[in-house]
Description:
Structural class: alpha/beta
Strand order of the largest sheet: 2-3-7-6-5-4-8
Helix content: 40-55%
Number of domains: 2
Shape: elongated
Distance between the termini: 24 Å
Amino acid sequence: xxxxxxxxxxxxxxxxxxxxxxxxxxxxxxxxxxxxxxxxxxxxxxxxxxxxxxxxxxxxxxxxxxxxxxxxxxxxxxxxxxxxxxxxxxxxxxxxxxxxxxxxxxxxxxxxxxxxxxxxxxxxxxxxxxxxxxxxxxxxxxxxxxxxxxxxxxxxxxxxxxxxxxxxxxxxxxxxxxxxxxxxxxxxxxxxxxxxxxxxxxxxxxxxxxxxxxxxxxxxxxxxxxxxxxxxxxxxxxxxxxxxxxxxxxxxxxxxxxxxxxxxxxxxxxxxxxxxxxxxxxxxxxxxxxxxxxxxxxxxxxxxxxxxxxxxxxxxxxxxxxxxxxxxxxxxxxxxxxxxxxxxxxxxxxxxxxxxxxxxxxxxxxxxxxxxxxxxxxxxxxxxxxxxxxxxxxxxxxxxxxxxxxxxxxxxxxxxxxxxxxxxxxxxxxxxxxxxxxxxxxxxxxxxxxxxxxxxxxxxxxxxxxxxxxxxxxxxxxxxxxxxxxxxxxxxxxxxxxxxxxxxxxxxx
Length: 509
């Protein structure tokens, strides 16, 4: 198939991104760890939409962040009032305003005094809302000072990033009438996109597991034929599968080290050109994966049997089937089209198709030989996840894995090693995403369980696959293996003993 030679170097790149479902939205970087909740200062931090009108025409919409204090913002756009915008004088709003306001929203620069002081001064001047311009490009959580005992602010406070503030200042200086609207739409608790994303992950693992089990069973049937004929060609060897790489305990342990180094490299080198490199690697892997999946699928039909069994010798590649030669240009064109047009709104479809094909092929090639290796691998991945999602915030001041997954500092909408679906009912837009690692790592164990069930001729209910697939994890597998007294065999061997030809497997129809 040629897949190992072209894409095996990409495996760690795709499985290290174990970030779970995530929504790409506003960038909130300040953590409220020192200011406890108190009466008058216990609002939830919410993103705020700030549509802007200039001389009666809507020109743009900014995204801000609501403060811990002040009244709750309206959630419906039609209920939010359109309010005139005015400059603060002085601009920091730390002292009494020189201009008298009549229910305008006041635009204020950050700094020189607390957020609550600014809000109180603005309210005393007659403002209906205060919009504070941050001195950085991201959003900042506005909290109350720890020493404030009585916080009673009657106007909403919203922070905007520096670039949004610069635009508003330009509008005010160049126009006689600028108005804004402040409202905070609520996100749905469960979006339809997340359901479809879950289905995609489950279907991908199901396809990969059945393909892996089918290949293992076909190899076992071939060995049965040799054993039945009394052939000594196998010399007592175990079932082997061409083109398959079995993970061992050492490589499972090295996963954490190698993946961590690769993740740090992505974090440090994240830029536009680096994303372009990842796009090229992903496209190569997607071509190989899509080609392998399509060739295998079409080979199941009689019309394509001859094309799959006839070969042509290609320089540098060796013998290649006519079916592979016919499929390859389509796969290459598909990947190139996605790479060129990956910034259009529907490009996620092509990314998901290439990603699912790549994952299925990886799960067909890379296998867990026994439960011990699977346990070590998933345990290492668990601690790897915990460290790079949560603990890394203490060392790098940001969650390294989330930063890499979102493609921050790259100018791109995230890296390509993700399955993604646009959030359908979310007023904030963005995507629901899942890292390849969240599918590949548990998928290795699920595929192992189905291979074992088929080789041992276990029924669906008596086997491990149904329960492992249901749990989509490790716990059920260990409990069932212990209860059935097969834990030791699964832990060390992972395949049934096949000493003589009377252990037969039925070939597939």
